[in-house]
Amino acid sequence: MSDFVSKSLWYVDDGTGKIVPYAPSGNSVDDDNLPDSVDSTYLRREALYVVGDDGKLRVAKKDDFGSSILRESEQSTTAGLWWSETKEKLTLNINGKEESPLLKPMYQRKKIVFFGSSTTDGRGTTTKSNAYMSLLASALSAKGYECYIRGVGGDNTTKAIERFYKDIAPLNADYCFIAFTIGNEGIYNASDKDIVYQQFKAGLFNIIRLVKQHGMVPIVANQMPTQNYTAEIYRYARNLNAELDAMDVHVVDWMGAVVDETTYMPIPAASFDHLHLNDTGHSALYQSIPPSLFEKVGFQSGKMINTPEKGSIHIESNTNADYVFRYSPEYPLASFSAFVRFKAPSVIDIPITLIGAYGDGGYIRIQLTNTGVVAINPGTEVKTTAIISDTNWHTLGIRYNVISKKIKLYLDNEVISDETVSASLTSVDNFYLAGRPSSTNLISGYEFKDFAVYRTAQIAENFRLMIDGTFPQTSLELLAPLNDKVLDEGSRLMNLAPTTRNLTVKKSATISLTEGSI
């Protein structure tokens, strides 16, 4: 190694395999004395080298050379961003080779990395702690999750792939939350939007593939609107979201979290500027993510779920139960959607609550009376003229957005109400099916199947899928097919959603539940 100039910097050229100078200004190099090539098993190509006073070549350290070039080369991730950080690496020299030993950690952590553009950089919030990923990190910290934020404003899929090996792969995370937008890909001003759409889709799929190749579970945020959305771009976004729903990947519903379906744009109260959401909008994005998703996502398929055609629960008799079923999510919901199939008795003589959502600020419940379906909350009563006058199977759906205070009701394939209400309900910690707390109207003779709860106000297309028996898992909190065979008091019924809680049969109640007619 005596041919090397002392105290100069060197590196291995990727193209030629030769050691070449990486010397700062002021250092002279004798090019004639450079060796022709080096053994790549001995020298790491990504490292910088220095010749010490003893004339031996070794990996350079900070104190060897105080140049900005050397310091910059040791930056482990994207420099200059608020989330950037440097790391120290333990290495051993074994038989002339540098090795990085694996050490057993003092405690086991579960890692989530958030990989996205400006929204994942916290743009639009008053403080980074109000950004969606910070809110989720706070909620999961007690369960031993470590969260790493890797958002860069303006990133499209090409730039994201370029920095994947620098910012994402070294973290060795368990889960990667992916959040890139078709807007950053350039669709707004593109003359041929189809080309941009296909380019973005291919890039997004490549990112998902990279994440899986590196042993991480991908979770994808679907396309959310901006104030630049038109009816045409909204259609592209919905098309892409529908494709994601059909894939075997878990998806989070950012579209339903903030969209105003009448304008194709975000709800005004959620917007910071024409591209970004404010604190309210980021809170809605956070609420759309079932935090307990991370407990099951590693071993549950993300495909849409088709519930069994057969199987239902019939409430044969009820002596003292004000409600029959309750679902208490591990993490409360703000906005929500709920859906159920039901069959009423031939005579509806008393008002019955089919679905009730209760929590901070009050409740919203959907009643069935002999004069129609009614949505009730403490501030507003939304009456409809939709009447059930037969004993056939029907579907009932409700979507509620906590920001806009809009309630939309679906009966079978029809929208029977779309109203802005004065609801004060801000957080739901209990859902009731077949009755409500403290009711004296005891439900009996009804039959139920396919009870679902989502963490967002789902768009109309998804309700039509539910009517057909197909349930997207996009922000799905609960899917109880109600085809269970064990129906004792206190029974925990099957939940097909990627979450950890169950719909339960009320305890200490005299209820006769039997398998239904299908």
Automatic annotation (TrEMBL):
One protein family per Pfam: Lipase_GDSL_2
PANTHER family linked to this entry: SGNH HYDROLASE-TYPE ESTERASE DOMAIN-CONTAINING PROTEIN, THIOESTERASE 1/PROTEASE 1/LYSOPHOSPHOLIPASE L1
Protein name: SGNH/GDSL hydrolase family protein
Segments forming domain SGNH hydrolase-type esterase: 114-283
Annotated TM spans: none
Keyword check for Hydrolase: yes
GO MF terms, alphabetically ordered: hydrolase activity
InterPro entries linked to this entry: ConA-like_dom_sf, Ester_Hydrolysis_Enzymes, SGNH_hydro, SGNH_hydro_sf
Source organism of this protein record: Paenibacillus thailandensis
Lineage, broadest ranks: Bacteria, Bacillati, Bacillota, Bacilli, Bacillales
Alphabetically ordered keywords of this record: Hydrolase
